[in-house]
Amino acid sequence: MATMESLIGLVNRIQRACTVLGDYGGDSALPTLWEALPSVVVVGGQSSGKSSVLESIVGRDFLPRGSGIVTRRPLVLQLQKTEQGLQEYAEFLHMPKKRVTDFFVNLTLIDLPGLTKVAIEGQPESIVQDIENMVRSYVEKPNCIILAITPANQDIATSDAIKIAREVDPKGERTFGVLTKLDLMDKGTNALEVLEGRSYRLQHPWVGIVNRSQADINKNVDMIAARQREREFFATSPDYGHLSSKMGSEYLAKLLSKHLESVIKARIPGIASLINRSIDELEAELDHLGRPVAIDAGAQLYTILELCRAFDQIFKEHLDGGRPGGDRIYGVFDYQLPAALKKLPLDRYLSLQNVRKVISEADGYQPHLIAPEQGYRRLIDGALNYFRGPADASVDAVHFILKELVRRSIAETQELKRFPTLQAEIAAAASEALERFREDSKKTTIRLVEMESSYLTVDFFRRLPQEVEKGGNPVASSADRYTEGHIRRIGSNIFSYIGMVSETLKNSIPKAVAHCQVREAKRSLLDHFYTQVGKKEAKQLAELLDEDPALMNRRQQCAKRLELYKSARDEIESVSWSR
């Protein structure tokens, strides 16, 4: 059966885990989990006795005292029962692992500031609204249990605590009314109308409290003595004697414990669900981030090769169509190269004037007899030189696409994100390999252009006279070898031949580029790198696997979260709930 101590302790540990995890950041479940946990918040006007009530419940002196606004920022207090015989201590999240054992120490973080009516000298005009907004941010949470603190010597109708509690909890389901300073009421007056629920009824009973006075605190009257005096006050009071069993800070603590028990029992299933979901998310993230690297050289080499293979697989997927990017290479072959070939200035090169000039220079001092063969060859060689540019441009375009795909593939290889040094080495090795492939591709494509110049397709020219005669035009004679018509026919013939060659190169250049660059990139992009890695010593391998500090920190954070969540889950599962 679950005990109150196990229930409260469980919630405190989960709340502490939430607070610690919040410092690590990045966990979307934390706000939801924190809000699902019940908490007790004291709210009231300035100097209404909120801090004294907290100390009475805790049974320890740990909050500051004084006039005016002493409580200046919220304090989230989490109490855990220590093992028998161990010294009590306090620990603050801004000072981890530093234990405070002197409970008379001045603290910088304290409970909710008191609600005020007006700003006094030295305070900003917005302080009234600022404090109210701060208080609301706590009490508006549906799992917040509100301790509405009101001094007994104040009219309940003007109570700041009751006003704000009624606004955020109109049904009073989570509001506990607490009357303080009963011992300071004028003689002849009492607070029975409030305590018995006739003045303002709440779902939970009102509880009267008698706190230590400032004089008691100055005299170091401890909490044990203060509680004894409180019990005597109610037991001997003619006004409150019949209510003495339901008055005092000890009864308030029991009342809150009983209520907390029921709330916690109702919330635990939802909390467990949130924790299990968070555990699944954190384990998935740790798998994504990868486990710590082994220190053995063999294991490190295996890790490096596996990471390279993961990158290589993604790179191939880009080329083969499993991922976007490879289609841009086809765009070079299908659009860029044909467009470049069409834009070659062959019309200008084969103009009447240039053809005449080249033919004349080729003939020299002795004009050609039948056909200006040397002129033909010079004109064809000159025209084919224009094809070098598109061939080079195709090689370069594919090279830059491959480089971009390497960069993208490295970025998409999640396992590599842990190792910036290895990323850089792979990028450098891939870039070096692509440069070699580019140089080989350029040599091959230029060789294709040169091959067209080295040996002309003779059958094309042998068919020309017959084709002309069939068209009704006589073959040019030696008499009209330099006439405009003859020169124009030569230019036309060469233009037709270059057109045929252009179609051939439009098909052969992509084949050469794909073979020399794309195919080799798929087959042997990191072959040289593999050879070099295999020769490295253990220290050099470790340097390649030097992780990004941010990712190492992230993994540690996730591991810490996971440990805390699993601990909370185990505690929930270990509790046998009473029926």
From TrEMBL:
Domain Dynamin-type G span(s) in chain numbering: 34-269
Coiled coil: none
Record keyword DNA repair present: no
Gene Ontology CC annotation, any one: phragmoplast
Entry-linked SUPFAM superfamilies: P-loop containing nucleoside triphosphate hydrolases
Compartmental location: Cytoplasm, Cytoskeleton, Phragmoplast
InterPro entries for this protein: Dynamin, Dynamin_GTPase, Dynamin_GTPase_CS, Dynamin_N, Dynamin_stalk, G_DYNAMIN_dom, GED, GED_dom
Gene Ontology biological process terms, A to Z: cell division
Superkingdom classification of source: Eukaryota
SMART domains in UniProt: DYNc, GED
The GED domain, residue ranges: 487-579
Keyword Cell cycle in record: yes
Any GO molecular function: microtubule binding
Main location: cytoplasm
CDD domains reported for this sequence: DLP_1
Keyword set, alphabetical order: Cell cycle, Cell division, GTP-binding, Motor protein, Nucleotide-binding
Entry's family note: Belongs to the TRAFAC class dynamin-like GTPase superfamily. Dynamin/Fzo/YdjA family.
Full protein name: Dynamin-related protein 1e
Upper lineage: Eukaryota, Viridiplantae, Streptophyta, Embryophyta, Tracheophyta
Gene: DRP1E_2
